[in-house]
Amino acid sequence: LEVSDGKGTSPESFSAKLLLGEIMFNKLGQYEQVIPHYQAMLAERPTAPEAPELMFRIAKSTLLLWQFERAVDLFEELRKKYPKSPQAERAAYEIGVSYFTGGEQKFGAEGEAGIDAFQSAITAFQSFLKAYPTSALRDDAKLMIANCYEELDQLPDAYQVLKEIETVHSAPELVRLRMRRIEQRLARKNK
């Protein structure tokens, strides 16, 4: 039973829908089911304070369903609609992740499409860094840029980016391990 407040469903009903969406998204990973759930909530209350987060979760669910191009479009839409929201910053980062993950999927099977995706990821992460230079995700974005360079076999570029974040990244041992791996690959190439 839903109680109307004259503007749709009651606040209690909307809160229950938020909780249900939270369970489907975070606890159960039911991304196919949560997308229409959140879309209906946005249609019901397009100006709700939760709208940017609902849009983010729709886009993230799309990414997690491996619909990379659609995810990029949805993250871009969120950035345009809510440019000052914290979700806009996260969306900018996730655009790079979407391109990178799509590149990984395409690289072996589709060659050139994978290369293009990694180059698009680099561009997206560089745009993210320019737009959000003090973001808590800054070093992770740089690590992702290094990952892209490594996938593109641009090892000196990957190494240089890793060197920049070696002492500031939250996982410096990971960065150093990656640097050693690149050093080994370069040594093998130069034999």
Describe the 3D structure.
The structure is a single chain. This protein has helices at 11-27, 31-44, 51-64, 68-81, 86-110, 112-131, 138-151, 155-165, 172-189. By secondary structure, the protein is an all-alpha fold. The longest helix has 25 residues, at 86-110. The protein starts with 10 loop residues before the first helix and ends with a helix. Mean pLDDT is 91; it is low at 1-6.
How many strands, what sense, and barrel or not for the largest sheet? Answer: none
Radius of gyration: 20 Å
Q: Determine the structural class based on helices, strands and strand pairing.
A: mainly alpha
Order of helices and strands: HHHHHHHHH
Helix fraction by DSSP (H/I, runs of at least 4): over 70%
Strand content: under 5%
Spans of at least 5 consecutive residues whose pLDDT stays below 50 are 1-6
Number of continuous helical runs: 9
Mean pLDDT: 91
Give me the count of strands.
0
Tell me the distance between the termini. 73 Å
Shape: elongated
List the helices and strands and how they pair.
Layout: H1 11-27, H2 31-44, H3 51-64, H4 68-81, H5 86-110, H6 112-131, H7 138-151, H8 155-165, H9 172-189
Give a summary of the structure in a few sentences:
The chain has 191 residues and is an all-alpha fold.
Can you give keywords for this protein?
191 residues, mainly alpha, disordered N terminus
